[in-house]
Amino acid sequence: MRMLLDLPRVLLVVCLLLLFVADRVGIFLKQRSKLTEDERDDYKLVVGATLTLLSLIIGFTFSMAVSRYDLRKHYEAEEANAIGTEYARAGLLPPADAAKVRGLLRSYLDHRVLFYKTTDARLQQINAKILQLQDQLWSAVQAVAVVQPTPVNALTASGMNDVLNSQGYAQAAEWNRIPVAAWGLMIAIAICANLLVGYGRFRVDTHALLRLILPLMVAVSFFLISDIDSPRSGVIRVLPQNLESLAQSLPR
Known about the structure:
Layout: H1 2-5, H2 8-30, H3 37-89, H4 95-117, H5 123-147, H6 151-175, H7 180-199, H8 208-229, H9 241-249
Helix pairs in contact: 2-7, 2-8, 3-4, 3-6, 3-7, 3-8, 3-9, 4-5, 4-9, 5-6
């Protein structure tokens, strides 16, 4: 299920087929059982309540996806600020140590930009390199702070801690997705809603395009939610604009 949610275009097609089939099943069931006039009033109430519930759930889920997207953008900006601040603070170190830390920071920044842009199998290698650079960065400032435990060196070590923490926050925000169970329940309610709509049609020979409208609208809504909620495979993605701007401003 999670693999399907990471492919919004595939999810669109699958949901569209499922919902259209549910509509057809509803029409099939109607041909074998008729509602009385009294039952039809109750049935309209059930259909209205189901569609209202579906629309509310889609709205709440969309809000969840947007909030997670905004959180990923926020931490990308925070990460750029932390790296830029530490690059400036590195100038307080002895010249040799400052040059080493700044060189490592530039390499680290380049790999963080690649992390946001890469969607293929290279991501694992980039993550491994980022972890390696983090160890080197911390070792570089730790060595200076241990040998000369001055307030200035402590400030530099604190700034490096912010750099490492910002990466952890960004990673946690990427992992913070809409739960699979919530997706399953939402899709199940959508299937039930389309089945009820198909069952309640007055005419079974309704044009196919008209029967396709509700499944299409719901499937497109699911696609949009999944696209925003997918950090890497969606059309709407968090771009490392702040990190790239910082990389261009740093001297090489």
